[in-house]
Amino acid sequence: MKVLLIGSGGRESAFAWKIAQSPLLTELFIAPGNGGTSNHGNNESIHETNLQGLADFALEYNIELIIVGPEAPLVEGIYDFFQNDATLKHIPIIGPSQEGAMLEGSKAFAKSFMQRHQIPTAAYMEVTMDTLPEGLEFLESLPSPYVLKADGLAAGKGVLILQDLNEARTELLAMLDGKFGNASTKVVIEEFMKGIEFSVFVLSDGVNYKILPTAKDYKRIGEGDTGLNTGGMGAVSPPPFVTEAIMQQVEKEVIKPTIEGLLKDNIVYKGFIYIGLMLTPEGKAKVVEYNCRMGDPETEVVLPRIQTDILSLFISLQDGKLNEHKLDIIEDTAVTVIMASGGYPEDYEKGKVITGIDKVTESIVFHCGTKKDSNGNILSNGGRVLAVTSLGDTWEAAVEKCYKSIQYIHFDQQYYRRDIGTDLR
Ligand code: AMP
Ligand code: GLY
User: Fold this and answer.
1) pTM, two decimal places
2) Is 337 in the pocket of ligand 1 (CB under 6 A)?
3) What residues contact 231, with CB distance under 8 A and at least 6 apart?
4) Closest C-alpha residue for ligand 2 atom 5
5) Is 232 in the pocket of ligand 2 (CB under 6 A)?
6) Lowest mean pLDDT among 234-243, 294-303, 318-327
7) Ligand 2, atom 4: nearest CA belongs to which residue?
């Protein structure tokens, strides 16, 4: 089977690694890929949202399956683009329809979906400039802190959590006035939920679903969860505090109603659903957000725990036969530690030569932001550069392997958190 994988981050490096293990694979292409994906297939320099370019490539190379890593092509409607073209519709796409991708592309859409299908989440109100007085009234009725969310995609920066009511009022106005461009002409005001966050990943064929390994990521740049938010500086799967009982509640109150809700609303969804959850002090999990894709760096700990052939799972999505497949999960804990460029998530330099990856024996080194130069050197090419993943029979053992492996790797101005997993103690 000829497969095209779309994306260029650590998530795609992990997908490429996993797909390359499939006996069903004949050829793998990654568009545009990175310095690590090319170890598992051919990188093609087509931008992830160049839908026509991706379609032309898929036809020319007789691609039989497309896996979409990031949200942008999904929110742009890659699924519908292929479905609505007679020459392309035979090529299956792993990822939801454009309407399904709105679970991530529009916070207001996601909240009304949850409300309609009685899925536990924070109370909210959707506000535009026209409904500002009602919005302010709702804001004033909530206790501090205040959660304001740009409705649309805002490069991960569209959520503000503010302690002070006056500041929240000012920010609400600024958002509606275009602080995040068109993404914030509509704002969702939410009740703040206390608790610990974790993520659940579901693969669905639109009717059946499989619950993939759970994970927790470390979003802040600094140790002890301090400093600026990032795309994620590390992850653990499974988080030990997510008990069987919690997962039963999540399946009954969140996963089942989500899949049934998509069906009831006639939303075509054959792909991954990433459910961000808050485990509240009462011990109940509530939804923080949906994403229409896998998480990054969570994929780098989820996929190494899946034993099942991933291409056979993907093929079963097309015939609606996911239920006939067994998902084999490795019991071990997986931990990933991100090695980043100094300065990230603010300004940082690229193009640093990375050495020592070949000396690592106890971990898998996934590439996030790297490229290969013409001499075969691996250079840093992004904020997050590498994800060093290890499996261990305890999370302590996995963490220890990660930090041991990192000692072999070097690039100028490298930075990583030294406390990934230590809060689990
Ligand atoms: P989101 O993009 O909706 O996941 O929001 C980004 C982050 O903001 C989440 O991962 C949470 O840490 C935090 N957050 C969002 N909504 C809430 C909420 N209602 N209560 C508490 N924290 C929240
Ligand atoms: N790690 C967070 C995300 O993928 O959105």
Assistant:
1) 0.96
2) no
3) 156, 296, 297, 345, 383, 384
4) 295
5) yes
6) 318-327
7) 295
